[in-house]
Amino acid sequence: MKYLVIIILISLIQPSAFSQENSNLSSLEKDLCNIQSSLYELRHTLNDNIEDDNFYTNSLDSLQHQFKKSLYKMLSLDSTYKYQFTEIQKKDCKVIKSSDNKLRVFTQNTFQGGSTPMFCSYIQYVSKNTNHIQKINEYDDPGYEYNMIYSVGNNSHNLYLLSGITPVSYTHLRAHETLRH
């Protein structure tokens, strides 16, 4: 009888914990969306009325730093690897996954660069049960809007090729290698 009560209690607690964790991830994603929306608004509001170029640059830099910090915070949680990021993808951010689901790339339109968009990208992967995040480029260089991950592997290593388009409109392949579990 004791065991039955414990099992029932555990089964009641687990959905609540999952729901709370998912709610926390949704809240963190909402923070990312708000920062991205602020970047968009700042870019489009001040684009034609730049009186203080330093204020404009410092504001964009500050928001980009907040975005990076929030994204790293979110991606460092092990539970985010399976999280879908549906809301941020509506805000000029793109999330793509490899066919084996072991690598994801986040590409953010930074709203810098005038009429030519600039992109900042991050890689997330799990190796040996550890979540890893790596920045591909800085937010103030042109970067690539990644749209495809090609997986090539053997028994000991996976090799991933990233295909993307730059603001100067040519395709670029970038290799990323991770060790298998």
Describe this structure in words.
38% of the residues lie in helices and 30% in strands. It is built from two helices and seven strands. Strands 1-2-3-4 form a four-stranded antiparallel beta sheet, with no helix packed on it. β6 (157-165) and β7 (171-179) form a beta hairpin. α1 (2-46) packs antiparallel against α2 (53-75). The longest helix is centred in the N-terminal third of the chain and has 45 residues, at 2-46. It is globular and about 60 Å long. The termini are far apart.
Distance between the termini: 41 Å
Helix content range: 25-40%
H/E element sequence: HHEEEEEEE
Radius of gyration: 20 Å
Shape: globular
Q: Mean pLDDT, as a whole number? A: 77
Q: DSSP strand (E) fraction?
A: 25-35%
Counting helices, strands and paired strands, the structural category is alpha+beta
Largest sheet: 4 strands, antiparallel
Low-confidence segments, ≥5 residues, pLDDT <50?
Answer: 1-19
- Counted by DSSP, the helix tally is 2
Strand order of the largest sheet: 1-2-3-4
Q: How many runs of DSSP E, i.e. beta strands?
A: 7
Provide a compact summary of the structure:
The protein is α+β, with helices and mostly antiparallel strands.
Which secondary structure elements does this structure contain, and how are they paired or packed?
Layout: H1 2-46, H2 53-75, E1 93-97, E2 103-109, E3 119-127, E4 130-135, E5 145-153, E6 157-165, E7 171-179
Antiparallel strand pairs: 1-2, 2-3, 3-4, 5-6, 6-7
